[in-house]
Amino acid sequence: MGAAFNPPPRQHSGPPPPVGRFGKFPMGSVFFEYIGATTITALGATTGRQYRFSTPSVPVAVDARDRWSLAKVPNLREVIPSEAPHH
Question: What is the pTM of this model?
Answer without folding.
Answer: 0.64
